[in-house]
Design brief:
By secondary structure, the protein is of the alpha+beta class. Helix 1 (17-28) links the parallel strand 2 and strand 3 (33-37).
C-alpha cells in the first residue's frame, strides 16, 4: 500500500513546551520544519500546575525570551495572576511567577505555531528514527510514523515529554495513556533502544482538580497577585498587561489528613511496588511528604484556578497516586474542602526518557549525528526547563545544518547553561529540577538582567530582530551614562537633605557625600533619592532598576566576576576530541571510566563530573601540557 513520503529540513517530535520552542526557532531561522504531535489538543499542554515561572524557573523564562523564544510572550498574553516571589530577599533570587489560563495558554501557542512561516503541524505518532551508518556512529536521515509515512530531513529533535510508553496510576487502577488521558506513544522507545540509546524510567504526578462550587473559601486565606504587574517578556509593554487578577487560596493539611494517608499507604502504587520509575525529589507526592516528614503537623495546600472559563481548581501541594475513594477522604479532611467534588482524579504517570549523559552540550546525541532532544525526554522536570532545552536544541539543529558552531551557554552566562551542563555532565537518577542554589554565579545571573546577558547571543543566532537589539544597546548606554553621572553627583549636608534623610529613617550626614554612597545605604535606593537629585532625567524603570542593583551590590558583583574569570580559564582549556583516558597514566580507574563515558569538552566540564577528583584534574593538566608540546 503506498504511503506518504515528504522532505523537510527539520522534524520535531512532540509539541509540548520543548517542542514548541524547538519548532518555532527552526522555522524562524528559515528552515522548513515539521512538528509532530500525538494530538493537536496537547500543544503546549499544562498537565500539571498551570503556571509559568517561580523560583529559578522565572530566570529560565526571561532567558528564553532574551534569546528569542516564545514562552514569556505567551504567558504575558494568558496569565490570570502574577506575583514576584522572594521580594524580601536580594535580587539574585527574585523570581516572577504567573498563574496561566490553561486553555488560553495552549490555544495562544497553537495560534502562534499556525501563523509561523516554514512551520507545518502534523497529528501523528512517530514510530521510528531513520539513520545511516553503523550503530554508534549513525547519522539522521528522517523518521517514520505509525501510519507508514516517511519524512526525510537533515535533523530530528525529540521532545516527547511524558508520553513514551506512558502509564497513569490511581491506586490499583492503571491506564496506558499519556497525561490527561491522551494517547501514549508506544513505538518510539524500541527504535531508540535499537540505536543504542540508554533509557530510564521516570515518574511524576499531579493532584486532583476540584469543582470550585464545592469549595468553602471562607476557611482559607486569600492570596492576591501583585498590584503592579511585571511582564516576563522584555518586549512586552508593562502598561499593556495591567489588569484585574483572580485570587488563589491557602489552606493546610492536618493530622486527620495524614492519618488517612498512613492508613492507606499499602494501596498507594508508590509504596506497593507498582511504580517502577523514579520520581522528582523536589516535588514529592503528599504520601511522600507524610512519610518523609513524619514530624510535621501540617503541609501547605494552595488552591489555584485553572482558568477563567472553568470551575476546575488545582490542589497544589497534594499530588497523589492513591485510589479514588482514599482521595475523597484525604481531600475532604482539609479545611475548606469538606464537601469537595473531584472533577479529575490525582494520578502518577510513568514514562520513558533518556540518560542525558549521552548528549553533547549542544543537546545532540554524541553517537547519532543530527539527533537532538529537549525537555522531560532528557530527564528533566518542569515546563520552563523543557522550553529552555527545546529552544537550544532547535537553534543548534539549525547551526549544524549551516555548518556553524553550536550555541553553548556556559554556567557563568545563564541558568540555561547550568541546566544543560548539569544534565549532560552529572549523574541524574531522578527528574532534574532547576533551583537557584544550583547556579554558582547567581548574583550575576539575575532575572532582571537576562536581556543584557543574552539578547546579543539571540541576535547573533538570528532570532532577535535588529530593532530589538538596537533597543538593548540604547538601554546599555543609558545605564552606563547614569552610573557615571551619579558617581559625580555630590549631596551636601544642608537642612533639606538632613530632613529628607530623617523622613527615610536614615542617619544624617556629617559632611557632603556622593549620591552613590547614599544609594548603598540599606534603607535607601536610587528611586527614593529622586527628591534630592535635582539634575536627574526621566529614565525607564528597567534602567533605574539596573542602576540601583549595580550600585548596591557592586562589591559582591565584582567578587563574583573574579570567580567567573577563574571559571572561564578552565572552560577555555579544551580537551582533544577522541581522547582515550586509558592513555593518561595516574588517573584513578573510576575517573577513567567516567571520562571515557562522558567525553567532556573542557577541563572545567571534566572537573564537574562525579567521580573525577581534583587530583585527577591535575594529572590531566600535566598530560595536556605534554600533548600540546609534542604537537608543536
Amino acid at each position: 500500500m503506498p504511503c506518504i513520503v515528504e522532505n523537510y529540513d527539520i522534524c520535531v517530535v512532540g509539541a509540548g513546551h520543548a517542542g514548541c520552542e524547538a519548532a518555532l526557532a527552526a522555522a524562524r531561522l528559515g528552515y522548513e520544519t515539521m512538528l509532530f504531535t500525538i494530538s493537536v489538543d496537547s500543544i503546549a499542554l499544562m498537565p500539571c500546575n498551570p503556571n509559568i515561572g517561580g523560583t529559578s524557573k522565572g530566570h529560565l523564562v526571561r532567558e528564553i525570551d532574551a534569546l528569542g523564544g516564545e514562552m514569556g510572550k505567551n504567558i504575558d498574553k494568558t496569565f490570570i495572576q502574577s506575583k514576584m516571589l522572594n521580594k524580601s530577599k536580594g535580587p539574585a533570587v527574585h523570581s516572577l511567577r504567573a498563574q496561566a489560563d490553561k486553555a488560553a495558554y495552549s490555544m495562544e501557542m497553537r495560534k502562534t505555531l499556525y501563523k509561523q512561516k516554514h512551520l507545518t503541524l502534523k497529528q501523528a505518532e512517530v514510530s521510528e528514527i531513520l539513520t545511516e551508518g553503523k550503530t554508534g556512529n549513525d547519522t539522521i536521515v528522517g523518521l517514520k510514523t505509525v501510519s507508514g509515512g516517511t519524512y526525510y530531513c537533515k535533523a530530528v529533535i525529540l521532545c516527547t515529554g511524558t508520553y513514551l510508553k506512558a502509564r497513569c496510576l490511581t491506586g490499583e487502577m492503571i491506564t496506558h495513556t499519556g497525561p490527561n488521558g491522551l494517547q501514549a506513544a508506544n513505538y518510539l522507545s524500541e527504535s531508540l533502544k535499537n540505536l543504542g540509546v540508554e533509557m530510564y524510567r521516570f515518574k511524576t504526578g499531579t493532584p486532583a482538580r476540584i469543582d470550585k462550587n464545592s469549595i468553602d473559601f471562607s476557611k482559607m486565606t486569600e492570596q492576591f497577585g501583585d498590584e503592579r504587574i511585571v511582564p516576563f517578556s522584555f518586549s512586552t509593554n508593562p502598561e499593556d498587561i495591567q489588569k484585574n487578577q483572580v485570587s488563589c487560596w491557602l489552606t493546610y493539611t492536618n493530622e486527620k489528613t495524614h492519618e488517612v494517608i498512613r492508613n492507606n499507604l499499602s494501596r498507594s502504587p508508590l509504596f506497593s511496588g507498582m511504580i517502577e520509575g523514579t520520581g522528582p525529589r523536589y516535588c514529592p507526592s503528599i504520601e511522600d511528604k507524610v512519610v518523609k516528614f513524619a514530624d510535621k503537623e501540617k503541609h501547605q495546600v494552595f488552591i489555584e484556578p485553572e482558568g477563567i472559563n472553568t470551575n476546575e481548581m488545582y490542589i497544589a501541594g497534594m499530588s497523589s497516586s492513591l485510589p479514588e475513594d482514599v482521595q475523597y477522604q484525604m481531600y475532604r479532611s482539609v479545611p475548606g474542602l469538606e464537601h469537595a467534588k473531584i472533577v479529575r482524579n490525582a494520578y502518577a504517570i510513568e514514562y520513558d526518557c533518556i540518560n542525558p549523559n549521552q548528549l553533547q552540550l549542544s543537546l545532540e546525541f554524541k553517537k547519532i549525528k543530527g539527533l537532538f532532544c529537549g525537555g522531560q525526554f532528557n530527564g528533566s522536570s518542569g515546563y520552563e526547563e523543557a522550553a529552555a532545552q527545546g529552544l537550544i536544541a532547535g537553534i543548534n539543529a539549525c547551526m549544524q545544518i549551516q555548518g556553524r558552531e553550536p550555541l553553548i551557554l556556559d554556567r557563568s552566562e545563564a541558568y540555561i547553561g547550568v541546566l544543560i551542563d548539569d544534565l549532560v555532565t552529572k549523574e541524574n537518577h531522578e527528574p532534574y529540577r532547576m533551583m537557584t542554589s544550583r547556579a554558582e554565579y547567581r548574583l550575576i545571573l539575575r532575572q532582571d538582567n537576562a536581556d543584557l546577558r543574552l539578547t546579543k547571543r539571540g541576535y547573533e543566532v538570528g532570532l532577535i530582530s535588529k530593532e530589538r537589539f538596537d533597543s538593548l544597546l540604547e538601554k546599555e548606554k543609558m545605564i552606563e551614562e547614569e552610573l557615571k553621572r551619579i558617581q559625580k553627583v555630590m549631596v551636601g549636608a544642608n537642612q533639606n537633605v538632613q530632613a529628607f534623610l530623617h523622613s527615610c529613617g536614615s542617619i544624617p550626614l556629617n559632611t557632603g557625600t556622593s549620591l552613590v554612597e547614599l544609594i548603598r545605604r540599606p534603607e535607601l535606593n536610587y528611586d527614593l533619592l529622586e527628591p534630592i537629585d535635582k539634575a536627574r532625567k526621566p529614565l525607564p524603570f528597567d534602567v533605574r532598576e539596573q542602576v540601583n542593583i549595580l550600585v548596591k551590590y557592586e562589591g559582591y558583583i565584582t567578587r563574583q566576576m573574579k570567580q567567573v574569570e577563574q571559571f572561564k580559564k578552565l572552560e577555555k582549556k579544551k580537551l582533544p576530541k577522541g581522547l582515550d583516558y586509558n592513555d593518561i597514566h595516574g588517573l584513578r580507574i573510576e575517573a577513567v571510566q567516567k571520562l571515557n563515558l562522558l567525553k567532556p569538552m573542557s577541563i572545567g566540564q571534566a572537573s564537574r563530573i562525579s567521580g573525577v577528583s581534583p587530583a585527577d584534574i591535575s594529572v590531566i593538566l600535566v598530560y595536556l601540557e605534554q600533548f600540546y608540546y609534542k604537537k608543536q
